[in-house]
Amino acid sequence: MATLRLLYLLFVITICSVSSQTKQLEEIKKDSSLVIEGNNVWVRSTPMTGEVVYTLNNGNVCKIIKRGKKQSIGLTTDYWYLISYKKKRGWVYGSQTSIKQKKIATNFKNYIQSTLKECFFDKEFDYWLDHSEGKRWKHIDIGYFRLYNSGTTCQLEPYKLHENYSKKKEPKMLEVAYFEDQMPIGGFCEKSKSLDGVYYKEVKKLPSYTTFLKKYVSKEIELPIIYERGKKMKVVILHNKMIIKTLYFIAADNKWSLVVVDDCNCGA
Q1: What does each C-alpha distance from 252 to 110, 222, 223 come to in angstroms?
Q2: CA angle 27, 62, 83 (to 5 degrees)
Q3: Among 265, 227, 212, 237, which Cα is nearest to 123's?
Q4: CB 50, CB 31: distance < 8 Å
Q5: Does residue 62 sit in helix, strand or coil?
Q6: Whole-number Å distance between alpha carbons of 36 and 94
Q7: Which residue has the higher pLDDT, 22 or 124?
Q8: Per residue in 214-242, pLDDT tens?
Q9: CA gap 126, 74 in Å, rounded
Q10: What is the maximal distance between C-alpha atoms in the chain?
Q11: What is the pLDDT of residues 21-53, one digit of tens each?
Q12: In whole angstroms, what is the distance from residue 172 CA to residue 48 CA?
């Protein structure tokens, strides 16, 4: 009887050992590799903001341990990967590797020209933006917001229609001039000296707003951390020498999305 128990125990141990080895082989088989594209590519201790622990160069082949979260940087949204290279581990951004995600196909000039023509000029823009047709401008994880004057301060709210929204059509502007990397001179509280048209340029930050926390303070619009470094564009539309709309867009998940409609006026 004792011999049978011993044989059974040895059988169980053997089965467990084989199962463990098989599982380990499966995990190794699942692992794939990537190739570094570019020189002096940073490998971090943690994704996004971790300390740079070592660098890699073009052609280095690394084993992928696991895939992390996505992040938008510039015009690119990609995953972070935990890798191993010569027994050293760290996190590398996917856009600097052979398995990078696709980049935005449409440059901002083409995007804003087609978008404003279709959805802004001679349209009830505020009404359109709040309804289903405007959802394609909206990033599912970010949404879009409106800055407005509730008094003498510029405040922030999720974008939704109010009685004080303009329901009239925007100007027709058949011949629209586009001014890249420029902003108009004036046009906010006084007539501008610049030509009518659409002005756009990259900005480092989204506009600030005023909030009350025991006292009035100025606060920056917060984005999910994975999109904080996404490329941001400010668009100003000048008509009859006055600014009629200011919009902010961000590059996230391989497309442009509207983030802020700035309706604050010079009373703020």
Answers
A1: 17, 15, 11
A2: 65
A3: 237
A4: no
A5: strand
A6: 9
A7: 124
A8: 677 788 888 888 888 889 999 999 999 99
A9: 28
A10: 102
A11: 333 333 334 558 999 999 999 999 999 889 999
A12: 44
Find out whether 195 and 187 touch, Cβ atoms under 8 Å. no
Kindly report, residue by residue over 86-110, the tens digit of the pLDDT: 999 999 999 999 998 876 657 899 9
User: Which ranges in the chain belong to alpha helices (H)?
Assistant: 2-30, 108-119, 125-130
Lookup: tokens for 101: 């995600």
Beta-strand (E) ranges in 45-139? 52-56, 61-74, 76-85, 88-93
Distance CA 75, CA 60 (A): 25
Residue 82's pLDDT is what? Answer: 96
Provide the CA 223 distance to its chain's centre, in angstroms.
Answer: 8
pLDDT at position 104, please? 62
pTM of the complete model beyond 0.85: no
Question: What are the residues whose beta carbons fall under 8 Å from the beta carbon of 11, sequence distance 6 or more?
Answer: none
With bands split at pLDDT 50, 70 and 90, how would you rate the model's confidence at 71? confident
pLDDT reported for residue 246: 95
Instruction: Give the position of tokens 């398995």.
Output: 99
**Residue owning tokens 């009859």:** 240
Other C-beta atoms lying within 10 Å of the C-beta of residue 46: 13
Neighbour tally for 25: CB within 10 Å: 10
CA–CA distance, 242 with 192 (Å, rounded to integer): 6
Give the DSSP letter string of 21-32. Answer: HHHHHHHHHH--
Give the closest residue to 97 by CA, choosing from 43, 54, 23: 43
